[in-house]
Amino acid sequence: MAVRPGGEYAGRPLHVIWLLDCSGSMAISGKIEALNNAIREVVPAMRKAAEGNPEVQFYVRVIRFSSGATWHIAQPTLLNDFKWVDLHAEGETDLGQAFALLAEEMSKMPAEARMLPPQIVLISDGKPTDDWKGALQALLNIPWGRRAVRQAIAIGQDADQETLRKFVDNPEKPVLRVDNAEQLVRYFRYVSTSVTATPPGKDPAVVPSVPMPRADDDAMW
Amino acid sequence: MSWKVAHACVRGSAHQRSGLPNQDAVQCTVTPAAQGTVAVAVVSDGHGSPRHFRSQVGSSLAVSTVAATLQGFLRDSVATDGHVPFVPEQVHELERKIVSGWMAAVQSDLENNPFTQEELTTLEKEEGAEGPAAIANSPELAYGATLLAAAATDRVLLYLQLGDGEILSVSAQGTTTRPLPPDDRLIANQTTSLCQPEAWRDFRSSWVTDGALPTLVLLSTDGYANSFRSDDDFLKIGQDYLEIIREQGIASLAEELPTILTEATQQGSGDDITLAILQDDLGPGAAGATKVPRPLMTADSKSALIEQLKARHSSQQHKLQALAVRVEQTRNDNRRLRNTLLALVVAAIAIVVAVFHSRIFPPSPPRPPLPPATSPAPASKKPVASAGSVRKQLTEEWTLQLKGKEIPLSKGSNIPSHLIHPEAKAGDYPKDYAQVAWNPDKRAMVLINGSKDRWTVGAGQKISANEEVKLGEKPLTIVFAPGVKGALKPVADPPPAESDTPQ
Predict the structure, then answer these.
(1) Could you tell me if A43 and A190 are in contact, meaning their C-beta atoms sit under 8 angstroms apart?
(2) Chain A positions in Cβ-Cβ contact with residue B187 (cut-off 8 Å)
(3) What pLDDT does residue B39 have?
(4) What is the DSSP letter of B420?
(5) A66-116 per-position pLDDT tens digit
(6) How far apart (Å, rounded) are the C-alpha atoms in residues A205 and A117?
(7) What is the interface pTM, i.e. ipTM, of the complex?
(8) For B363, which of B120, B186, B309, B465 is 20 to 30 Å away at the CA?
(9) Residues whose CB falls within 8 Å of the CB of residue A187, separated by 6 or more in sequence, listed in order
(10) Residues of A in contact with B230 (CB under 8 A)
(11) Window 214-253 of B, Cβ < 8 Å to A
(12) Which of B155, B170, B263 is nearest to B219 (CA)?
């Protein structure tokens, strides 16, 4: 047969979006350095896990929020092309603005059946300083915002776990609390590889093949 | 006319790696009828998540029960007494019958093969206690599957769908369309299913007759469409399969289908892929087609066709009318938008003029004194009271009694400095000692202290430079400077005219 029926084949896209707290408090006790280092370790682990899942194309984007919110990596970037530029910490914790920026982007995503549910990971060490409730509701009102797999990591004892829980809005996905750099790497890797290691089925990933990390390390934060 | 079929069903590449079975199923049949053939193609996709652990059985039961039901339906309702087109009630009844037939088959399978302890333990390991509880409550969940079906005689073609997947119809010219409306719920791996309560409510269905019958019908599970980069890339399969069938015939294509679909799952979605093709006569010129002469039209069939064309014409006219209404609505919207933009431009010009007024125009002569307090306010300054409105009107005019004089005040009025400090030299005080203005925050008229004097209002409220005192309906006394006391009184509004009174 000369012609293969149809146009070009492609794996199914899965968008991963990280919302990272870069407020002034992240500069204390080396938290922002720990986050930068964690990302440098997490991305290779995601690539490796994704090798077992060649039919999915993973795209990563990053929003930073402090006084306001901006895209740190605006372009959906394939894992193999992902390069990390360090974040710096200063200013407030404008989580509401991060939700608004994300909602604006997600409302533009096409309602295509081939797109797998996006994963949003929120990492924060403090309490929001702006009006986040309305912005979160607006995000959850968007089809992809509602159907996204939302997960959160709380850094240290000052993180507002209640806000993070409202963002996750799923009792099956507890907010993960980390108290030192090593835990941050392990939990972030766990959350991220749980998505890249799960083949596309009829449901979003719920049972990753990566074991849950232990939480018996020394607390620094 | 005679229908031909081809189909293939391949296990997904991701299913192979993770050890999941092929959960798709397909069944196609072509049987001779009184006139031509009765063809049925049924495709089903068993759900992938742990609680649907018998979905490969569920999809197999779906295709076998539905194929039999559809054949019976066509034989009974169409092939013998020729009721074409169907009435919607017939099709709704068929949908209920399909769901109850599948449920009965599931029930029977469960009686012969009860859930094993191993199945339930695996489910609990993967979904927690909630999984086995859901299955105990609704055992059919274990068998959950979608359904796509096309059933055709030489005069009518019926499409049915429940859940995700794609049905495409391809015309003799290769134009590829979706005969069923989209279902917005089917994104992000969500699907409607045979295993849901009252599943018949989620069916999508339609049918075409005689002259509108397509040349090809393609039914595929979602693994196929999800393997393409875009929807356009997927829709191209219609034209391509038509060309392949025209060149080499459907039997030859059927042999190649497993290879085509295996490549699609490997380079695309990784999911199981099933494709069923129904092929009508290709018409003259097709290399691989056997030419079957169409029977000459009888008077009866001719008048039936005319009736159908009339009905189609009337339906098209209805759609045209609806379109005309929408065009008119869009025009109105555009008009409103244009007016709004015009108003915005005018407002912007007004703001610019207001800001640069003093530069553009020479200073205006002193404002002429306002009419005496007793005369009615100019009509244009009065807020328009709408019929039935209970909104209170704001006081807009006051008189200031000072040193035996009566000075009218309204928005924009100034109290000149020489009235308060006649002895002062020019330059000691600004020209405008105080000004009446609208404060949008307080939603009230105010008198702004433009001087350095500290006023005492009423019982003792102090108003320093650049501060303001609210003007309302009550009279006020203001001590502007030692020994300079003024009395501010609102000017009473005239009673509303007869025509303003609510009826």
Answers:
(1) no
(2) 111-113, 115, 143, 147
(3) 94
(4) H
(5) 999 999 999 999 999 999 999 999 999 999 999 999 999 999 998 888 899
(6) 9
(7) 0.83
(8) B465
(9) A153, A176, A178, A213
(10) 7-8
(11) 222, 225-234, 236-237, 240-241, 243-244, 248
(12) B170
